[in-house]
Structure formats: structure tokens, C-alpha cells
TrEMBL record:
Membrane topology: Single-pass type II membrane protein
GO biological process: peptide catabolic process; proteolysis; regulation of blood pressure
Gene designation per UniProt: LNPEP
Name assigned to this protein: Leucyl/cystinyl aminopeptidase
UniProt xrefs under PANTHER family: LEUCYL-CYSTINYL AMINOPEPTIDASE, PROTEASE M1 ZINC METALLOPROTEASE
Site (Transition state stabilizer): 557
Binding site for Zn(2+): 479, 483, 502
Region feature Disordered, mapped onto this chain: 103-125
Domain ERAP1-like C-terminal: 693-1012
Aminopeptidase N-like N-terminal domain span: 194-374
Amino acid sequence: MWSRQRDCVDPRCHIRNTVLSTQGAKYFTSDISGLNMIENSMFEEEPDVVDLTFPALDPDEVTYEPRSSRLLVRGLGENDMDDDEEDCESSARLLGMSFMNRSSAHRSNSSPYTRQAPPRSCSRPSSRTIVVCVLFLVIVASMTMVLYFLPACTFTKAGCPKPNKTNPIEPVYPISTNGELFPWAQLRLPQSIKPLSYDLTLNPDLDKMTFTGRTVINMSILHSTNRIVFHGANLSITKATFMASDVTVLEYKPRQQLAVNFSEELKAGQYCVLTMEYSANFSNTYDGFYNSSYIDKDGNKRVLAATQFEPLSARKAFPCFDEPAFKATFLIKISRKKTYMTLSNMPKAKSTNLSNGLVQDEFEKTSVNMSTYLVAFIVANFTSITKNVSGTQVSVYSVPEKIGHTEYALTITSKLLEFYNNFFDINYPLKKLDLVAIPDFLAGAMENWGLITFRETTLLVGNESSLLEKQVVASVIAHELAHQWFGNLVTMRWWNDLWLNEGFATYMEYMSLQEGNLFLSVRFRALDKDALSSSHAVSTDVNTTEQVEEMFDSVSYEKGASILLMLNASFPGDQQFRKGIIEYLKQFSGLNTDTDDLWNSLTQTDKPTHHMNVSQMMTSWTSQKGFPLVTVNLMGNQVTLTQEHFLLTSDNTTHTSSLWNIPVTYVNDSFLSVFMCLFVFSDTFKLSKNVTWLKLNYKSTGFYIVDYGKDGWSALTEALSKNVSVLTHEDRASLIHNIFALSRLGRVTFRQVLNLQKYFSLETETSPVMEALLQLNNIYRQLEKRQESNLASRMKVLNSHPRNSIFTNQTWDKEENVSKQELRSALLEMACSLNDENCTHQATSLFKKYKDSNGTIRIPGDLQQTVFTVAGQSDETWDTLFNMYVHATYDSEKRKMLKGLASTQNPQRLVQILSSGLRGSLIQTQELPLIISTMCQSFAGCLFAWDFIQENWDRLIEKFPIGSFAIQTIIKSVTSQSSTQAQLNKVQAFFSGLKERGSQMRSVQEALETIKLNRDWMDRNLPTLRRWL
């Protein structure tokens, strides 16, 4: 470790620190083995080398190329070995003794080893000596043969020998379904084959819920091989031919892989064609080619079929090379009844009447190479509205009854498409762009190239919808449109770099719409998750299908977006970052990339300014989990900054010495302009004059937490108490978040948290109030679930008392400002949840007017959740609300009604909605995560939800894949507010018993860690809470 001090006459200087040698090293995955050395640094000549390499393997066998398979041995002296090395001494001498001495003549005179000059004449060896030498040579030869024929080994300091994992002699192949050996033993496909194009013909039968298909794959042989390995799941292959000859397709179901073996080797450079015919059932979950349904305005059930392929489900619709790096073109044909219509990624080329009375729609061949997860097709009876935007035909589709709710989506899509075309300096490459609202769709939306699919609630809004509801739709559309460049045009090479897709799309979502408050909140939540030991690096190893699913989390999305915001804020001027990402998109257009490619592009763009090495700075943020805690020590005009890993769970197993290149911004009471410094471990600089307080991380653009020390926190609290506007609302919100996080860490007392709260009565802005409400409500929920009823009831008073003026100033009329809508919604929802008499009376009155008017009197959109929740908590109005839910067609309103229904404390009704959601009858199964999350806001509801999950776990993972975001949400909902040892024991016992059915999920480890942290915080702070409350 080291520290460096530098005085800054101009506080705006960029402090460039020498990077520690450990940070200069390139980061490799665990699958790549480096050189293993036994070395003594006293020798500086080139090392002698013993070559232990073995004959080259088939290229298919090598997923990661080893850096080296040679053993380097440097000058072994008799005093140079540790105890741990002694076991290797004889082997090392056998391997190295002769050649170690070979270069002695070339050593410098400064060598600490001295050797006596050989005598000028040699005496004749005795026969005994000759016998000993011959025996020695025989032993050496024998040992050499043993070493040659045994599996390769790696000699290390930790022990000798260790198996060499980089060069297995022969892989162990699994058994395919027909009993033959399956010719591949890894999750990722071999790199010998490159698919060039797919010709897909699909024949869905929406009456029988089945489909047949024919897939023709044109491919190129990159490396000579005698097998083709690809993906397929739940497909019954009825016929397969390779270059017009029949072949047998092998299947290994655990990895969803198919293979064809060949007696003669396929030669590199050869082009070939594999054709397969197959049949399958529609998926009964929400991935692959699945069936969906809805009830039309006449009460009739309508059936449709749609796709959701990301991340690993294209293989459920057609045989394919289902990895992001295997890009190809697609020609798609789909047959249908005349009463249906079809959609796919490209415009329809022609329709042909078939002899069986069906119509076959053929779509244009894709004009771009696409990853399989971006392919999409729909068979339905939808209607649309259309607009031409800069040469692109933009359409929004919905079921006929809801076409009136598509206008806003078309308007905002048209504006965003023009914005992105200009911002990225690359026009959207396809002829058309369809946005489709699917009645039964698990994800919020999916960025299929040219055919983006949505939940109805994230695409459809009426003219009377609130600004908050329209903001949700605009955000989702902005996210998915950004993917047409980040993800579709340039795609991550493998799922370990999912953040290149999702982090960028999330960043562009907030940047394009200037949604500052919302982005600030999600950054705080990303910090909360990343503070756990169970978190992961932004770019991390992904070796199982469950790990692929688990990458779709707040680290890939919100942390990815947050570090891009931080990087953008670190560049001089407004356009430098934009220039870098334009260069990145143009350089890798149509290709696959990894994280280093992005940083290298941005580094090249920044070279003329010599501002900073982007790759060097940002690698520390993507290659290791977590984020830094920056501690500030202010003495007059001298500022000392130090950093350490902010890790809530710290023990010997999680100890790290992580360091980050941190771009630090700050303001103070003398200079209200923004200054920046970049530091690695610690830094000291001087301001031009003494200051009273210093606030780091201006507007919270940096992904780190700051501790100001006792005096620093007191100074900031006093400054805010005198003038709340001395800091921006983002800075005030970040102070609230940071001090609660530090209390959780144990770095500040809860009394210090309460001291900061003294200024809250002056607060009027949305983001600080929302953050304070969230943090205090979390404590209240934990007290409630610990059955600390006395403390919980007193906590209700605390949650409203400091902000009485804010509560009483809220109206129940229509509000036009979106920020005020957001604040009002949160405050009134909190007040009614605390049984505030005025709040519940107003909500009940509004619900009665709404009911009596048969829905003609509208409840303002931002007040609907509060009103429906109050109605759902009353036994008198629950049935009325349920009947409204069943017959409601307006999707956003319908979902709020469902949350209200799930807020009931009535056990029979809780069971009713859970059972209905699981069956998918009156309540769609896609809504189960929402139901469980809402129920867990109360103690009784959470108990029922926990019992339900334990009883129905197997059915849940049939509906939602293990590791999926839906499963993550369910687990977090039922565990995040638990804080007792008994609750921890129950959760641990249940999940440990699941074994391969979910016990190893990262979300389970996160849940257990969170309960322990809650328990420890409560144990530390309950006495303080009791005294204070």
C-alpha cells in the first residue's frame, strides 16, 4: 500500500496518481491459466525453459486458449525455498539442475552465487563413480518417461503437483438420449462452425397448441471437425439431412444441446447445409414460442402465439446456435388461418394461399446479422396505427379493443427514434419498427430487432392517463429503442458482459428523457445491492444457465448505467463521451464485443485531450464487485481522502483489498462551483482557503458512498438547518442515503442519523423526501415483522411528524407537474398506510364516487394506488374492487387494483388471489411476483406468502425459470424485511433443501445475507430506538 500527497493551488486540478502495480495487471477469467513460475528474483538473465507441452488437441476441445503450458524455472538456490516448496525440491532439481548451471558463464559478476573455477585437469573416474553415474542416468531417464506419460501437472508454491486444468488429456463425454456418447462436454458451443443464414418455416396450430417447423442452416466450417454441436430444447426432430444425406441428431437434454457426428472430417473453409424437420408443443411458460390468450369485449376467449427468446429460449422454437456471438441472417415463413395475422422482425414480402386452406406469410430476409435471441414472431389478431419516421415505418399494435390507447406510444416512439438517429450518428438500419402489446407477457418489454414486444401496462396509456403513467411508458420505450443500437447493432460476446446491453440501454433511457429523480433513486438501490458480499462484478464469469438468468439484475442494469453516468461526468465538456460511444458503435457495428472493447474505444477518443486513461480507470469498476467508501478528513483548507471497500458483511472469507480509480467531485461553503480530482488509494490536497464544510460526489454522479466523520456530518447538518438550498436536492438525497448506509455498516450511530433528520421539516423536494420515507419505512417494516408492535406504532408517528406540513399541503385534485405527482403519490400512500384519518377518509370518499359513477368519474392516476389500497384493506369494499378488477380493461388501472386487492389482511382473500394467480384464471400468472411483493408489505400477508412459496415452489419454477428476475423478486419480497435468528433459520432450512432446484441461486445468498444484516442492525440499535421512540 502507498499514499501520495499533492498540494493543489487550483482546486480544479486533476490529480493523476501513479497506478499501483496490481492495477496494471490485465484481468483474466479463472479459466485462463497464467504462467506458473518457481523463481528467484536475484537472477536477471532470461530463464531457461523446460518444455512440457503435449500434442495439440482438437480445436473444439479448447474453449479458452491457455496462455502457456510451459514451466519456467529460475535459479533455485539452496537457501531460496520456503517450507512450502521443499516437497518440490527433488522434482525441481531433476528438471532443472543440469540447465540451471548451463548459463553460469553468462551471469554477471554481481551474482550472489559464487562458483569455484573448474580444475585444469581431471582425474580418471573410478569404476564405482561410473556405476553411480549410470544408475543416476537410468533414474533420470525413468523419471522423464514417467513425467511424459503421466497427465500434465503444474508445479506451484502451494503444493506439487497440481493437475493442469488447461490441457485435459481426454474430456469425459455425457450420454445422449439414445444411449450414444454425446460429442461435447461444455456449456458453450465449440467455435468450429459459424452459422451464416437460417431459413425457418413454422406451422403453428393454435387449436391444438402445437407447431411443426423446418429449419435450414447454412454454415461455414472454421476449423476442421467431425461434429456439429448446436441447441434445441423440447423439439422432436422427425428428419435431418446434411448436404442431402440423412443424419442422426443426438440430444443431451441437461444442456439443451443437439449434435451430429461425421465419420469423415469436415474441412476448414467448407460450406455446408443442415436441414431439420421437427414438431413441438407451445411453451406453457413465458419463454420460447408460447401461447397466450385474452377475453375480448364480447366475453370471448381469444388465443395468440408470441415469442420471448432472451436469453436462452430461441432453441425452444427452432434448432439453432443459440449464443449471442453466433450472428446470422434469417428468412422466416409462417402459416396461419385467414382470421389471423403474423409479424416478424422484417416486413412481410408476400402471402401465399396453401392447399390446406391456410395462408403462408413470408418475410424479407433480415438485412442485418442478428443473434438468435433477437428473432421474434407473433400469430394473433391485432390492429395497429402507423407513422413514417425518417424513412422507417413505425407501428404500434394491440388487441382491437385497446387500439385507442396506442397513440401516446406512437408519438413518443417517433420522437425518440429521431433523437437516437441523431445522437448515435447512425440511422436505425431496418425498414420497419413494430411495437406490440402482448396481453400475457412476463418481461416489461423485449428489444427484438424490428419487433419490440411489451406488456400492455408498459405500452398502452389513454389520453386521460396521468403524467406518471405516461412517464413509465416513455421510459420503457426509450430503453428498448436504445437496444436497437446497444445490444442489436453491437452485441456482447457472452452473457458475462450483459451490462454492455442493459447498462447502456438503462443509461440512455434516463438520459434521453432527462428523468433525474428516477435515475437517482435506482442508483441508490444499486448501491444497496452492491454493498452485499453476495453481489458480483459488472463483468463476471457465467458458467451455467441459472447464472445467465441471474445476470438480469440491478448490477447489470442500474450499476452499469451508474458507472456510465460517472464516466460521462468525468469527461471535459458535454460531447466527449458521446463521441466515444459513436466511435464504439461504428467500429463494432454488426459485431460482438466485450468490456475492454468499449473502454479502448473511449480511451482512443480521449487521447487528444490527455485527460485520463479510460480503460485504466474503468476496469476497476467492472472487474470487481462492490464500490468504495471514501472517507473525508477536513482540517481547515487541507482535505485528505482515503478509500476502502464498502462491504456490509465483512469477515475473513470476504476480506478484499479492492481499489478503485475514483473521479471525486466536490463543493464547499466557499466555492459553490464543482471541482474534480481522481485518486486511487489516498490523496491530500489543499483548498485556496479554509472551509466549514465539504460535500463530495456532486449530484451523486459517482458510484460510491462518503463518510465525513462526526464533525463533517455535524457541519453539513447545521448548514442544511440554516439553508436547505445550500445543496442541490440530489446532494441532499445522497446525504440521507449515505448516512443510513453508514449506520447499516456500523460506521455512524443511529443518533447521528436522527440528527440529520432534524432538517427534514424544511425539505420540500421529491427525491430527498422519497429517500427518507423509504429508509424509515424499511425500519418500520422490520419492527413490525419482529412483532415489536409498540415500537412499530411509535415509528408511524415518526414517519409523519417531521413532515406534517408536507402531508397537510397535499391536495386530492388533478396535479399537472410530474415531480409533484410523484411526491404526492408517495406521501399519501404512506399516510394512508399509517391509518391517517384524513387520508383514509379522502380515499374512501373518492372510491365511492368512482364506484357509483360506474367508472365515469376518473380518479387521478397518481392517486389511484392509494385509493385502491384503502379499498382493498376494507372487508366492505374488497369484493367490489375484485369485481372491478375482473371487468377492467384499462391496464395500468387494473394493475393498481390488483395491488389494492393484495393489501388485504383477510386470510381467505389472500389465499384466493394467490391461488387464482397460480392457476392463471382470473389473475394472470405473470402477476404473481407483484402480488407477493405487495402482500409482504404487511406482517400477516408476508406469513401467507412465505407459506405459499414453500408449498408451491416446484410449480413456481415451472412458470418462472430458476434465477429469473421473477424468482429474484419473489425471494427478495418474502425475506428482505426479516431480522430475527428464527426467521433466518427457517429461510436457510427451506432453500438449503432445494438443492439443484434453486439452493445455489445468488438471490438466495443475498436473502440470507440481508436477514443477517437486518438482525445485527436491530440488535445494535433497538436500545436506541426504544429510548428515542
